[in-house]
Amino acid sequence: MTAQEVEVDPVGAGQPDPVISVRDVWKVFGPKASEVPKSPELCALSRRELMDRTGCTAAVRDVGFDVAPGEVFVVMGLSGSGKSTLVRCLTRLVEPTSGQVLFEGEDILAADEKRLRDLRRNKFSMVFQHFGLLPHRRVLDNISYGLEIRGVGKAERAKRAMEVVDLVGLSGYEKSYPDQLSGGMQQRVGLARALAGDPDVLLFDEPFSALDPLIRRDMQNEVVRLHREVGKTMLFITHDLSEALKLGDRILIMRDGKVVQVGTGDELVGAPVDDYVRDFVRDVPRANVLTLKWIMRDPRPDDVLDGPELGPDVVVRDATRAVLAAAAPVKVVRDGELLGIVGDEEILAVVAGQEADA
Amino acid sequence: MAAVAVSGVDFRRPSRGVVVALILALWLALWAVLKGLHTLALGPAQLTPLHQGLNDLNDAIGASRNTNPLFLYFFNEIRLVIDEFVILVQSLIAQPAFGRPLPLIGWLGVVALAAFVSYAAGGFRVALLAAAGFTFLGLQGLWQESMDTLALTLSAVLIALLFGIPIGIWAGLSDRFAKIITPVLDFMQTMPTFVYLAPLTLFFLIGPASATIATLIYAAPPAIRLTAHGIRNVPGDTVEASESLGATRAQTLGKVLLPTAKRTIILGVNQTMMAALSMVTIAALIDAPGLGKTVIKALQTLDVGTAFNAGLAIVVLAIVLDRVTTAAGTRVERARQNRNPLAAKVRTGGLIGGGALTAVAIWLSYTYVWAAEFPSDGEIGGSIAKGVATATDWVQGNLSGITNGVKDFATLVLVDPLQSVLTGSPWWLVAAAVVAISVVLGGVRAAIGSAVCLGLLVATGLWQDAMATLASTLVATAAVMVLGVVVGVWMGRSSHADRFIRPVLDAAQTMPAFVYLVPFLALFAASRFTAIVAAVVFAAPVAIKIVADGVRAVSPTTVEAATASGSSAWQTITKVQLPMARQALVLATNQGLIYVLSMVVVGGLVGAGALGYDVVAGFSQGQLYGKGLAAGLAIVVLGVLLDRLTRAAAARTGRA
Amino acid sequence: MVRNGKTGVRGAGVVLACALALAGCGGAKVGDTGSAQSGSTGDCGTFTIAINPWVGYEANAAVLAEVAEKELGCKVTKKDLKEEVAWQGFGTGEVDAVVENWGHDDLKKKYIEEQKTAVSAGSTGVEGQIGWYVPPWLAEKYPDITDWNNLNKYADLFKTSESGDKGQLLDGDPSFVTNDEALVKNLNLNFKVVYGGSETALIQAFKQAEEKKTPLIGYFYSPQWLLSQVKLVKVKLPPYAAGCDAVAEAIACDYPDYDLDKIVSKKFADANGPAFQLVKNFTWTNEDQNLVAKYIAEDKMSADAAAKKWVGDNADKVKAWLPGGAK
Ligand SMILES: Nc1ncnc2c1ncn2[C@@H]1O[C@H](COP(=O)(O)OP(=O)(O)OP(=O)(O)O)[C@@H](O)[C@H]1O
Ligand SMILES: [Mg+2]
């Protein structure tokens, strides 16, 4: 379980330009909030100390990350860690105290009110934890609300709304009022509303936390499907690791407003940077997340190197049968180069560890 | 769980209670020694320089009204606009106009219109109620008076809403503005109307404008408060969702905030209507037309029957307006639940058919005398008046022995001791004790607030009257709360009881106090106790309703859990329902207090003396005007003091 | 939806037809009759009388209004107003006349002397008396109670919850100035003044006291309609002498008799139209007023009907009020 070297820098040189990039964003609530990010002394304090000293809450502290086009980027953390505040900073539903938010290279924090409204109308959409539906409007009118405020004509609105209704599986409920729907259905409305404007980026703030587990799973699958079908960039907030692992291409872990670690699921599980993250990932079914590259070892002199070959990104669970069936350890190979080998022991350590934990 | 929470509170409360008890004990001890010293007494005809100054100010304003540009261009314009508007409404339904001997729309048209509007806003049942109610007004022989009252009330309410709703929206959106406006609203609601009635006629002359504005001042605050409350309570998520989609502020306001807050806003409209109706009798003192005049005239000759008949008409109007607005508030929800397509069809048909019928009725009532002038000559009204007169005579003749005993006992045991401590202590002793109690209950901030209020009371020059009024107010509020809890719990636990008691409460709240003053005077003579009873009659309904709603709102699961664990009904009430309805109890106390204070002036009319009498006398005698105004201010200050104190105490114990 | 609309329209049509049929058997049309009443003769124009809230006042006003309308062809408007508000109305031109004024030196000073918006229009002929009264049964039972010198002897009788261990002197029609606190103090009476706070409270108290034979002493005045029902007995106070009420705190004498008068707006007086002439000439007696007040308060006639009846019965008196030129 020893950590191998982990690339922390998310966006390498060869990757496409990020859709969103966030730099040094701070959000401090309270009196004289703007002083805090400027003062190195105050910056150094913990959240608690800052509260006691100045009466300010630093909800987001010096956060930076990039989101690539088409990526599903997940932000995770315990309650109160600043996730909601962070995601609201992106479209300035909450005004960041300092820092930079770039959308396709444009500084959102510099946008005037009109431009900001444009961005919100055309580029971003958000799905909320408690749905935020309008109780006095029918489903269809809720969904077309975003189009309505853009000034889209009635007929076109209805047409577009009906398309999205189908897309999220709400057919037959167009005429209902929100309070006549179950929680899952209501969130589908929220989702449809966000999709109706055909935005470039979808922001989700714990959209499924209020739903029961079965429905939550349905909805997660729904998001996976949508992502496949419409391929939008998504920024997804959750405090549920399995959800993060299921949906996220990359995951950012926050604690007390700060970034603790950014990486893919297997990176977090395989190489947690500290105990906080380790605690977080403890209950994960490791075999489902870890890939061979995390458990392979260098060949020892006595190893027989004639086993089958597998790639380094094969998930342990999928490799288990092959490894156990093979007489010799499996060779982990990328582009013909031998990276390491995985034997029964390594596989069993993961699988057994998981059983022991469960 | 509940048990733990309750015992937690019990554990903390005594310590604070003990301190307060100690302060009170010390106060009593000092009072025994210092009795009669520094009590700041002021004779009924005596004036302080402040009173004199207020008199002079009033005179100066009056004298300058023909030269002051503010009058010439500002107040006069306002008056013209309002006058025109009210007169227009009156000429529609109440007063002869456009060269006709009758208003444009006669009774048939008004009844049809009322029913139709009620149908459109509420539904079939309220439409029936409205038609029956309005017809009843005619049968009482009070058609024209009722229409005058209705015209004035509706005009005042419309204007109140025109300003109140935007102000309320602003207060809902901006915390800072809410902070500024709240004390203004408190002021508007507790400042006795008598104080500004005469000056109003200076500013806006005698006529519809003054009556409308007097009504407006008292009636607008609920609309403002409830609008702000409604806007504030729109879930943050919903607003954020709208913003995140790029809505402008106006769009969010128009498409999200207002529709979502609609029910609360309608409740505000409802409360404003009720408040406006309760001003009808007082506005009659400056020539406001309508039922109020009938009441006042009847009282001059102690004609309780006629006064009651007119009062009943006010109650009927109030109930119709109340039920229609309430139904309008809930219609949306009901329409939603009812997904039956047939119902929608029936409704559309009903609207079209009803509209046509109404149009015909209006046309008939425009054209033909039988539909324009209410036919019967108030036979029902006559019998009501006679019946009530007989009943009051009987009550006065047979019960006053018992009731006088009750009065003497209550006065001796409750009012007198309290009043002699409050009025007999040196003013600084009372002030010190109140500030000390404020510290214990509400902390330093509350104490500072109390100190300022007490200082203002001293400054009004009416310290002793204020203390006498305070004594009666406290007794009345205590009685209101006893009734509030007993009847409120009963209503909260039994929807059966609720259904029967609620209309009685509505009637008690809207029947003008002037109507029952005469029988009360007969039963209890002119005394402080009479004033207390009148205040309780007026204030208890509010407290009862709030407590009932609070008790009903306690989660049924919790009550079930308590029952399941074997609690008796008494235990369920005292250990679960009342503690959990704490917020409602606090609110009930608060509102009870405000309502009691708003009856102080009426109390002055039936022997309570003190501030109430000062205000009444100030309204009636020119040289006492300044004193009356100071007394009005003292009532406001008392209100603020008690209100803040109860709130602070509640917040503290709430957190403990 | 469309279908609904059609049903609705059809329904409306049926309703309309029915209604028209009904209207066919119609009846009198609005405006056919009446409306001839405003054929104002004379050059009187409009005449606005304030109505102060007591029955005696209303009697004066109703009679004046009746005469002004019928004899002079004025268009009379009555405005229900408290005294001070009515006097304010002189300045704003909204009130022409107050037709029964009880003293009110404060208002006279303010509006007649200072603001110069009002002028006196002479006596109404009615004499007002303010004083302390007891119900008849009490005066009968204790004949000497009607002398202030004996009041202390009876103080115990008048004890109430409001007066504690002293006798209660019920006071407090808020519209009138009272000297009672000073009187009680300066006459060394063992009484406490309790403020009833309204005329209603006073009337009810006296009425009840006579009906139930309970003791009561209080501030009251005549003329007042109640006196025709309950013959209250006035208590003798030290007699009034000019100037004995100069210093408010030192007053120890009875109230003066009031010559109830009429006050009119300066403008109204200066125009000197027939209505003003009428007001100026108007005088009658306490008995006349009491009679009209009785019609209103006891016989429950409307003020207009009461006035009409009295005017019909007293044509000669009315004639004397009319301006020289009127018919
Ligand atoms: N408007 C505000 N004013 C003051 N403090 C705030 C405000 N909004 C959030 N905070 C504080 O900022 C911190 C982060 O809150 P935030 O809502 O972003 O957390 P979260 O990670 O979304 O938590 P949860 O999982 O409970 O939604 C919290 O300590 C919260 O109290
Ligand atoms: Mg959150």
What does this structure look like?
- The complex is a heterotrimer of chains A (about 350), B (about 650) and C (about 325).
- Chain A is α/β, with parallel strands linked by helices.
- Helix content of chain A is about 40%, strand content about 20%.
- In chain A, the strands form 3 sheets. Chain A has a 6-stranded mixed sheet with strand order 6-7-8-3-9-10, sandwiched between helices.
- In chain A, α8 (about 155-170) packs across α9 (about 185-195).
- With about 650 residues, chain B is mainly α.
- In chain B, α6 (about 145-175) crosses α9.
- The radius of gyration of chain B is 26 Å and the shape is globular.
- With about 325 residues, chain C is an alpha/beta fold.
- Chain C folds into 2 domains: about 10-130 and about 260-320, D-Maltodextrin-Binding Protein, domain 2 (3-Layer(aba) Sandwich); about 130-255, D-Maltodextrin-Binding Protein, domain 2.
- Helix content of chain C is about 40%, strand content about 20%.
- Chain C has helices spanning about 1-25, 55-70, 85-90, 105-115, 135-140, 150-155, 180-185, 200-210, 225-230, 265-270, 275-280, 285-295, 305-315, 315-320; strands at about 45-50, 75-80, 95-100, 120-135, 165-170, 190-195, 220, 235, 260-265.
- In chain C, α2 packs across α12 (about 285-295).
- In chain C, about 45% of the residues are buried.
- Residues about 1-10 and about 35-40 of chain C have low confidence and may be disordered.
- Classes of the chains: A alpha/beta (about 350), B mainly alpha (about 650), C alpha/beta (about 325).
- Chains in contact: A-B, B-C.
- At the B-C interface, α2, α8, α13, α15 and α16 of B face α1, α3, α4, β6 and α8 of C.
- Chain C: Keywords: Signal.
- Chain C: This is ABC transporter substrate-binding protein.
